[in-house]
């Protein structure tokens, strides 16, 4: 129970905004909190956008392979509803 109390006290001591400094006006402190809050908000939105982009990209990726007798062969034709073009390069120059 003591460890739990210490953990809760440590979490409560984490402050997202710095304390108001001595001699700092309320307007300056409010502006400082607004700027920091906007920074946190922009960071959170950017992180969410990146995560969503990764999830959408990964879920729509299709992996296809073609092998005969254990040897990988290129796929020359795939049937689909709409016409598409695929451009590929043999980077190994035919070396297996």
How is the topology of this model organized?
Blueprint: H1 2-12, H2 26-60, E1 67-68, E2 71-72
Antiparallel strand pairs: 1-2
3D architecture notes:
The chain contains two helices and two strands. The chain is mainly alpha-helical and 96 residues long. Strands 1-2 form a two-stranded antiparallel ribbon. Strand 1 (67-68) and strand 2 form a beta hairpin.
Structural class: mainly alpha
**Count of alpha and pi helical runs:** 2
Radius of gyration: 28 Å
CA-CA gap between termini: 63 Å
> Tell me, what's the shape?
elongated
Let me know the average pLDDT.
82
Total beta-strand segments: 2
Helix content: 40-55%
Strand order of the largest sheet: 1-2
Poorly predicted ranges = none
Secondary-structure element sequence?
Answer: HHEE
Beta fraction of the residues? under 5%
Largest sheet: 2 strands, antiparallel
